[in-house]
Amino acid sequence: MPRQLVEKRFPLDLKPSLDTVWTLYSEAKSAHWDPSRSIPWGEWDAGPYDPGQIAAARRVWSHRLWLAYGHLASTPALLVRFCLEHRRESDPKYFLSVRGTEEAWHVDAVSRFLDRLGGAIGGPDTPAYAELFNDSAYAQALDGDVVLEGFVAAQVAFRLDLDLALLDAARARTRDPVALRILDFLVADRRRHAAFGWLYLEARQDRLTDPMREAAAAQLAGLCRLELAGLQLPALAEPGIADELAAAYESVAEAGLGAAPRDAALAAFGGAVAQSRAKLAAHGIDLPQLSHRLGTF
Amino acid sequence: MNAPTILEKPEQRFPIDMSTAIPKIRDLYLSATRNQWDPRTDVDWSLLQPEKIPDEQREAARLWWSRRGWGEYGAVSESPAMIVRFYRDRLPPEMSLFFAIRSQEEARHAEACYLMAEHLGGWVEEPQVKDFQNAVSTHGVRKMALDPDTSVEMIFSALILTLEEYAFDWFRLMVETATNPVANRVLRLIMRDEVRHCAFGWHYMEQRMPHLTPEEVARVRQAAITSTEQVELTGYRVPWMAADSEATRIENEIDRLTWEGGLGATVEEAEKPVFVNCVKRVRRQFMGLGIDLPMFHHPRIGEF
């Protein structure tokens, strides 16, 4: 049973205290966009694509929706957690409130694109793949026994860096103007979201204790199991778990509709893991080499 | 020992259904997306001219805007919990989309109040009198949001259909009486968001009421009564409704000085008729849902 925290609101400091996070918050406020108006929906033309490519794009963008949808709950939960922790800085609370809005826009934008591709697919083909998504990150965020710094290291810094790397790799191969514009916004927002994780760890560097580092390492280990099972990169899934989705990524990459081919995605994944490992090591948090049948990351 | 919450049950993300079930809430989400504002850049703070405000009024307004900030912060820390609840209950996605923006709106309200207090002499971190802390600290939304035995409809009844409606009319009155251009601008911007917050609750309830059992309707009714009697009428929002005490007298004096300076706040004689009319309107709106709210009583108002 998650341990519930009890809020002690006063004294309440709303003064900005972390310049780097405050800057991110200010940038986010001025970068707002509107999924209904900021995407060139009028330029969408299914004509150049064959039905197989459209069906594949429907799968790939549905996968993106499944991932984004989970953040609708986990980000507000994290915001609540920051508020429940006595005398936590105000800047993360402000920032997370904007991140929540941006993730709502991600869900909306991806969903609108899916409407044009034939509609969102409600879930994965196999129960085994679906189970990867049920990590209850929102419940972890609200569990007083889960170390907040560990959660930020794993679920924000590391996880969103992977997400960012994969989105960036997809954007680099995207030619369709609608898909490209959506990815532009997703990447720009995610860059700030991931940066927040690293900047917050940096800001708390002097207060990190060994038990916190161990908790972070344990949370990272749990998350890596999901990632290596193909949560964000279906090519990593065991055969029979997400085969059609992995194949769809290849087809969509070739069509320029919003995905990276397998090798490019694996390279992006490996690069992000390596960079995260180095950044985590600077905070004394251990991220071991990740072994997988497709390679070591 | 902790009471069970909705967090114990494992996540079940699928199937995800993105179809819109409540178009009016979808429209509110779109409106919120298009009406973003930034307290730092959408308010001309130079017009505040704190040096021209008498010290006594400026100090009172500083305290009042800090208190307002404590209240707005309460929503920052509590309304995101509602999204977790929507997610767990698999409610229509437009509800989570709207509430995500609503959470940001609450944060910018808190930021705007903080900036007002800072410009008026400095943000105050806590009530001067400790007794007042409980009155402004929480109305229990987070606990309700995570409690599987408290329905979403009960929470909306307690929070949005009553407390937020009362607050909305209060803001409208303050917009009419705040003569300082910056105070007026901030109040107006906050009120613009609050319109959507109130509408959200009614749109949801209109859609849900036909599906509730008589027992569930009775609990929704009781939630409205309880929040009105035990939260609103005990001075959660305005101190003139609180029981007499040293803390109440201090806070009432702060409100009066702030109001006299045209810097926000209301006072008992100005707000009482507005509040009574607001409760009458809310009662009519509940009647539209098929719920008959009783008359209420407050020592300073009588029966209304």
List keywords for this structure.
heterodimer, A: 297 residues, two-stranded antiparallel sheet, 10 helices, 1% strand, B: 304 residues, mainly alpha, 2 strands, globular
- Strand percentage of chain A: under 5%
Distance between the termini of chain A: 34 Å
Strands of chain B, total number: 2
Radius of gyration of chain B, in Å, reads 20 Å
CA-atom Rg of chain A in angstroms: 19 Å
Low-confidence residue ranges of chain A: none
What is the share of helical residues of chain B?
55-70%
Strand content of chain B: under 5%
Strand order of the largest sheet of chain B: 1-2
Termini gap of chain B: 41 Å
> Roughly how much helix do the residues of chain A carry, as a percent range?
55-70%
Polypeptide structure, described:
The complex is a heterodimer of chains A (297) and B (304). By secondary structure, chain A is an all-alpha fold. Chain A is globular, with a radius of gyration of 19 Å. Chain A has helices at 19-30, 51-84, 90-117, 127-133, 137-141, 148-172, 177-203, 210-228, 243-255, 262-282; strands at residues 291-292, 295-296. In chain A, helix 1 (19-30) runs parallel beside helix 3 (90-117), helix 3 (90-117) runs antiparallel to helix 7 (177-203) and helix 6 (148-172) runs parallel beside helix 8 (210-228). In chain A, strands 1-2 form a two-stranded antiparallel ribbon. The two termini of chain A are 34 Å apart. By secondary structure, chain B is mostly helical. Chain B has a two-stranded antiparallel sheet. In chain B, helix 3 (93-119) runs antiparallel to helix 7. The longest helix of chain B is centred in the N-terminal third of the chain and has 34 residues, at 55-88. The model of chain B has no long low-confidence stretch (mean pLDDT 95). Classes of the chains: A mainly alpha (297), B mainly alpha (304).
